[in-house]
Amino acid sequence: MTMMDIRMPECIKSKANSNVKYWLLVLWVGVIFSALSVIHVSHACRLLTDELSTLERGSNALQEMWGKYLLEKSAEASLVNIEAIAKDSLKMRAPRQDEFVAIFP
Predict the structure, then answer these.
(1) DSSP secondary structure letter of residue 4
(2) Distance CA 49, CA 47 (A)
(3) For the chain, which terminal residue's Cβ has fewer other Cβ atoms within 10 angstroms, N or C?
(4) Buried b (16+ CB within 10 A) or exposed e, 63-87
(5) 47 — phi, psi (to 5°)?
(6) Are 98 and 92 spatial neighbours (Cβ–Cβ below 8 Å)?
C-alpha cells in the first residue's frame, strides 16, 4: 500500500484545506504589504535624492559667492587700492624730505 492508496477521512481533508487557505491568505497579505513597502521606500528615496540635489546646487552657489567675495576682498586689500583711498578720502601724502625726523637712542 502506498501513500496514494491511503484515503483521508473527510473531516481531516476539510481541516487541511482550511489551513492551506489560511496560509495562502497570510502569504498573499505579506506579498501585498511587501510590495507597498517597496513602493513607499522607493518614493522616499526619490524625495531625498531630489532634496540632496537641491542642497548641492545651493552649496555650489554659496561656494561661487564665497570665491567672488575672497577675490573682492583681496582686490580691496591691495596696496594700490589702499594708497588711492589714503590720498583721496583721507587727504594723505608722502612726507617731504624736510618733514623727516630721525630719533636716535
Answers:
(1) T
(2) 5
(3) C
(4) eeeeeeeeeeeeeeeeeeeeeeeee
(5) -60, -45
(6) no
- Distance from C-alpha of 73 to C-alpha of 44, rounded to nearest angstrom: 43
Q: Which residue has the higher pLDDT, 64 or 95?
A: 64
Is 81 in contact with 75 (CB distance < 8 Å)? Answer: yes
Q: For residue range 1-17, list pLDDT tens digits in order.
A: 455 556 655 655 666 67
What confidence tens digit (pLDDT) does each residue in 70-86 have? 999 988 888 888 888 88
Joined grid coordinates for residue 55: 542642497
**C-alpha cell read off for 1:** 500500500
Q: Report how far Cα 95 is from the mean position of its chain's Cα atoms.
A: 59
- Contact indicator for 58, 65 with CB cutoff of 8 Å: no
